[in-house]
Design goal:
3 helices
């Protein structure tokens, strides 16, 4: 798969991620998570808050990379399946 096509898939993934972030379907759970996060942060000392934020940033980055990989791999698998179907 070419780099240009791969970049297009990643761009599509980013657009879908934006839609999910603004979707009302997930809003109640996001609000609950935000409230819990605030409560947790308020219970921590400032240096612990900083450490928690750093951990949170790394965890989110890893989750994003994993989901992006799953998305791109799924599209690649779909292309292979379609290619095999049309070649038979």
């Amino acid at each position: 798969m070419t780099q240009r096509y791969n970049n297009s898939l990643i761009h599509r993934f980013d657009k879908l991620a934006e839609r999910v972030d603004t979707s009302t379907i997930f809003q109640p759970m996001m609000e609950q998570l935000n409230a819990l996060e605030l409560e947790l942060l308020q219970s921590l000392e400032p240096d612990q808050q900083m450490l928690f934020r750093e951990w949170q940033d790394k965890e989110l980055a890893l989750e994003y990379m994993k989901k992006e990989w799953i998305y791109v791999t799924g599209v690649q698998d779909g292309i292979k399946i379609l290619s095999q179907l049309y070649s038979d």
